[in-house]
Amino acid sequence: MIGQVNKSYIRGNAIHETFNRATTIHGVHYLTVEKNVVYHAMGHNIFIEDGAETNNYIGYNLVIAVRASMSLLNTDQTPAAFWCTNFNNIWVGNVSAGGPRYSFWFDPPSNPLGPSATSDVCCENVKLGEFRDNISHSMGRYGLRIFHKHSPRTRPCDPITFN
After folding, report:
1. Is the whole-model pTM more than 0.70?
2. Is residue 45, in this structure, part of any structural domain at all?
3. Which of 45, 78, 111, 160 yields a CA-CA distance of 20 to 30 A from 85?
4. Where in the sequence is the domain holding 118, given as residue range(s)?
């Protein structure tokens, strides 16, 4: 919940056998998460939480053997290697292999939830920052899941009007 962190990073770590995620990006903008290896972690492994988090760089991470959790969020029962609630982030060169459900799961709420709650950000309607050169292998369901919707607009929170 620190806000803008231009020079901060989570880089070059080995994270393994955790009972609650590898990393959670919560209320943070411009964070770099790169060149980490995650093995056998429970729940969503690299997790962007409330929906207010933007312009974070998630690059060249390897996530292996994602595990479900029955004690975190309901969605952690069908976990993703990478879980994101705001499309305006950058995903480059990440790899996930082995897990019960998803590699990349984009699940934007209408507006940010929890401590980041605001009606000034409309998560479903923001542009996708960047998504390229990511690899998904041997996941139980989908490599990429966009749920519920993504309808990018120039002014994401303005109502749609018809003349």
Report:
1. yes
2. yes
3. 160
4. 3-146
